[in-house]
Structure formats: structure tokens, C-alpha cells
Amino acid sequence: MSVIATPARQSTGGISARTVNRVVIYGLLALFALFYLMPLFVMLVTSFKTMDEIQNGNMLALPQAPTFEPWLKAWGETCVGLTCAGIKGYFWNSIKMVVPAVLISTLLGALNGYVLTKWRFRGHTLVFGLMLFACFIPFQSVLLPMATILGSLGRFGVTLRNATGLSFGLGNPTVNLVFVHVVYGLGFTTLFFRNYYEAFPTELVKAAQVDGASFFQIFRRIMLPNSMPIFVVTVIYQFTNIWNDFLFASAYAGTGDAMPMTVALNNVVNTSTGVVEYNVNMAAAMIAALPTLLVYVVAGRYFVRGLMAGAVKG
Amino acid sequence: MAFLEINGLRKRFGSVEILKGIDVDLEKGGFLVLVGPSGCGKSTLLNTIAGLETITEGEIRVDGRTINDLHPSKRDIAMVFQSYALYPNMTVAGNIAFGMEMRGVPAQERQKAIDKVAKVLQIGHLLQRKPSQLSGGQRQRVAMGRALVRDPKLFLFDEPLSNLDAKLRVDMRIEIKRLHATTGTTIVYVTHDQIEAMTLATKIAVMRDGEVQQFGTPAEIYNNPTNLFVADFMGSPAMNLIPATIGGNGNALSVVLQREAREPISLPLADAPSGLSAFHDKPIIFGVRPEALTDPEGAERNASNIATADCHIEVVEPAGSDTFAVTNLGGKAVVARLRADANIQPGTSTPLAFNLTKAVFFDPATENRIL
């Protein structure tokens, strides 16, 4: 191919036009990347500076005496509202909320997708349509009704505790948030899995039925092990959304010990005790952003692959 | 009583009737092929036998036991799918053993069964591989292994060879036939390829639009098609179906074939079917297979009723083993099958021998055979 193409290119002078195109494209890309990465750079740099250096120096300058002090302070000492024990407790709060919420919503989404494609029932398109509709309901409109429901659940929890000594987590703010995120995430996770399983060969399910596998055995042994790409996509999507959620977190766990990371970060930045410690704030923000970054770095290559899956046969 | 009996089977999806009363039976150790064009309901019929589709009406019995409402796994069947349907996350051994695992067979016994099947199908060296690391033919073997290992009463094959290339298809066809001969299992096999049907079957059911058009042995289907559809569908090259009229008088009937710009050919019928006299001077469809229309030297020696007529040859197709000559009769291209070394030139007139013992006649209105 190159043998034929090379003389043709030379004769038309195509090389220079090509080069110009390349320069323009890569130049623009570099510019946008710079624009996008600049805030991250400022945050990182600032978080390693002392307060003196921040007040007297250039925002873009590299730290002259890099220090981990702001990171340690953000993690263990900084004040969130009135308590000054750092953000570590809230970090674990978020983990405790995110992990179950992601796992439950993903598994339920997979189960929904499995039923909606391989065990079709009358009106399955309507059910799927309604679940899809749930993806487009704005957060704000469910705030109050959800608050009412959570309130009722909380009162039911109290009744349960009085009767049996156990509340089964009802009324616990973390459990409430898990519940809210699972319900709200179900539309998306179902959408992801349904579309993936739509292209999943039904003959495999039939073969497993002939082999004597039950509904859940087929799900666990055939569907789930072959769903890795979409599983990763859904986990990344759900993890990022739930970890970064501020509205539900502040509405249903905005005060007290169960406060998630996002709300705590907001409180760190808003706490006004004399000088604003930019370095500590930046470090806290970086800590808050790390898990989502980490999830993307670890599973990112599956993310791209997963989004492409089903686009081309084979 | 037959081993597999299907009585009055109907299947409706809403108001659409997919299977319109199927009656088929098969003896133990038989090989039933369901053949027909796509959309004729043959795969649906197979799925109802497997229990993957429910039935609306009728009865399916295997070895005297009604299995209509049983779960697929309780029917004592095994199925080979068109796409092989190998579980991509399991090894070949895992695939073969999955059914046994689901039925709680202990690991040692499973291993023994795997080894036995692997030996029969010569896939021992593939056992630890994943399906994605296998070629098409190997996948096909593994899929058959998964079915064989269950040692079921009934094997179901859903177009198992249609994903293979032409050469491999012939090899696997022979392999399936050998497998059937050595294991003596009862098989129901779906295909749209009439050659597969002819070569493999002990019984063929030709289907169209959810109805069995004809059910019989391959020879019956080939030599005595009950209607135009079966005659046209079975055989390659297809049977010549020529519009004609019945001439002659009384008990000496003849077939009259129109020709372009020449006087019609009249072929005297020595032992015409009795129903044909009612069609005197009326249009019929005259069916003659290419091998029953040949050069006079190549004609069957012991056929009782051969008529020879000059035909204008339009095209000659040498196919190596035979030479096909195309002429025009009754306004249709008609294929004759000659010896490979037949000396024949396009554009000339040559005498062709019609083996009228093998000829069949159809009523153009009902499309049914005239007997």
C-alpha cells in the first residue's frame, strides 16, 4: 500500500497540508488539556505549600519547600464545623455509604437487565420505559417526597427497636443514603445492563436451561461472569455519581456523624476561623477526589472497552 | 408405538399461528430431519420439543411419556445450537460438565464422563482451553460433546452446520452420520439445507408456513413429492417443473410441451397415473428431475418408459462430474443432466431422453400431485 501511496503524496504536495492539519489538531488538543488540567495543577501545587508561600508567592509556582503538613492537617486535624478531628471520619462515612450503594444498585441493575431481556414478560417494554424515565427525573423534585419516606422509615425503625431491640438500620442516615442512591441509580444500572444483555446470545441461556440450571444459577454462572465490561462501566459510573453527590448527602445527612465527604469538604471550606488555609482546603479537596480518580485509573481501560461493547459484532 | 410422537401440535403467538397442527413420529434410533425455508416453523418445532417454547395445543411424547409441561432439563434431551452456545467463561471441560454439575454429579464421575466423551470426539487436547481459543470445527465438536455426555433419550440439533465453511460442513456431516450409526441415538435435526436432509435422515419432514408438507423417507420425498413445493424444494439442481397440457386420447395419453418457434413436443405416456385422464386438454405441471432428462446413450437402461425428443440447447454447463444442458420448454428454462463427456454444443438441436417412469404431474390450481 505504501509503495503506491508515497509517490502520489509527493506529487500533490500533500505532506505539508497533512502536517498543518496535525499541528492544528494537536495544538488545539494540547490547549484544551492545559485549560482542563490547570485547576488540578494549582490545587496540587497549593496543597504542598506553606501558608507563607501561598500569601507571598505566585499561584502557579512550584512549592519551594514541599510539605505534607497540609495533607496531614486536612486528614487529621482540620475543623469541620465545630469538631476539629480532620476529614478522615467523613472519608470513611462516604466509603461506608458508597460501597454498599454501588454494589446493590449494580447487582439489582444486572438482575433487572437479565429479566428484561432473557425472561420477557407481558409489558416488559413498558416497565423498561418507566425505569428509563426514572433516569430523567431531576434530583430536586424527589427531595421532599423522599424526605417524607425516609422519615416514615425512621419512625418504623423506632417501632421495630422498641418491639425487637433491633432497628435493622432503619432511620440510620448512612442506610438512608444507601437506600436513596440505590433507588435513584437503579434506572441507570438497569439501562446499562439491559442494553448489554440485549446483545447477549440467548442461546447461551437456552443451553443452560437444557443443562438444568435454575434462574439464579444462570444469572450467577453464565450472565455475571460474561458481564465484566458493563459491570466495570456501571461501577465506575455509580461510584463517581454517588461519591460526588452533594444534594442528597446534605439533605438527608447534612449534619451529625454520618455526614459524607462532600458535605464535610464544604464545611471545611466554609469554616471561618481567622485565616483561610488554602493549602489545607486544597489537600482536603484532593483527598475527596482521590477515590474516584483511583477507580478510573484502575478500571478505566475497561470503561472505554465497555462503552464500545456491543457496538460492533464480535 | 413410536419413540417420539408429536400429535396435533399447535403454537400461537397472540393471533399468529406459527405451527398449525404438526403430526410427526420417529422410531427409536431414527434420524428425523425437519427441513424447510426460513420462517417455516422448523426451529420453533424443535424448541417446543426441547421445552424452550411452550405449546398451545397438542402433545409431545418421548418413549411413551408425555413431556409437554416438563422443564427442559427434565425431558432427558440434549441440544446442539446453531451458534454452539458454549459458555465463554468456562473451559471446554467446564462446558461439557456444566449439566452434570447442575445435577449434582460428583466431581470424579464428571471427570470420567468428560474423558470418555473427549476420546469419542478426539478433543482431549482441548479440554483446558476456552471456547474463544477454538476453531469453528472444534467448537462444533465441543458442542456435540456437551450433548453426548448427558447420554439422553433424544438429541436435538438446531442447524448445527450452518456456521461452518463448505468443506468442514461436509466433514462434520459425515461425522454426525457416523456418530449416529455408532451410538444408535435418536436424533431430531433442523436444517434449511436439503442436501443435509437427504444425506442424514431416516425420515424427513418438509415444512412450510407451520405445516408439514410431506413426511417420509428421503427416497419417498425425492421420488414421490406430494406437491409442487416439496418437488421444488428438495433436490439440487431443482426438479424441472414445466407447464404442459395433456393430449392424446382414451388410454393413450401424452404430455404436450410448448416450444419457442417450433411445433410442440408430444411425449406418449405408457403408464400414466389414473388421475391424469381427468386433465385431458387441460394445463398441468410436468415435473422431471434433471437426471431423468439426459442424452439417449446415458439414459437408464431398464427404465420402461423413455421418450426421446429433439431439444434446442441454449446453454451448456460442464460441472466436472456431469454436464448440465439448459433448454427451453413450456416457456421455462429446463435443465438436463448429461454424461461428463457428452458431446453437446450450445445453439444446436440434440435429442434428449425423457425418463417418464420418474416423471410426476401436478395440478396447477391446487399444486398437489396428480396420482
Automatic annotation (TrEMBL), chain A:
GO terms for biological process: transmembrane transport. Coiled coil: none annotated. It is a multi-pass membrane protein. Keywords: Membrane, Transmembrane, Transmembrane helix, Transport. Its main location: membrane. The keyword Isomerase does not apply. Residues 91-299 form the ABC transmembrane type-1 domain. The chain crosses the membrane at residues 23-45, 97-116, 128-154, 174-197, 218-239, 282-304. GO terms for cellular component: plasma membrane. The keyword Protease does not apply. Belongs to the binding-protein-dependent transport system permease family. PANTHER family: ABC TRANSPORTER PERMEASE PROTEIN, GLUCOSE IMPORT SYSTEM PERMEASE PROTEIN GLCU. This is Sugar ABC transporter permease. It comes from Mesorhizobium mediterraneum.
UniProtKB/TrEMBL annotation, chain B:
It is a peripheral membrane protein. It is found in: Cell inner membrane. Keywords: ATP-binding, Nucleotide-binding, Transport. The keyword ATP-binding applies. It comes from the Bacteria. Residues 4-234 form the ABC transporter domain. The keyword Phosphoprotein does not apply. Its main location: membrane. One of its GO terms (molecular function) is ABC-type transporter activity. InterPro entries: AAA+_ATPase, ABC_transporter-like_ATP-bd, ABC_transporter-like_CS, ABC_transpr_MalK-like, ABC_transpr_MalK/UgpC-like, Mo/tungstate-bd_C_term_dom, NA-bd_OB-fold, OB_MalK-like. One of its GO terms (cellular component) is ATP-binding cassette (ABC) transporter complex, substrate-binding subunit-containing. GO terms for biological process: carbohydrate transport. NCBIfam families: PRK11650.1. Belongs to the ABC transporter superfamily. PANTHER family: ABC TRANSPORTER ATP-BINDING PROTEIN (PTHR43875:SF14), MALTODEXTRIN IMPORT ATP-BINDING PROTEIN MSMX (PTHR43875). This is Sugar ABC transporter ATP-binding protein.
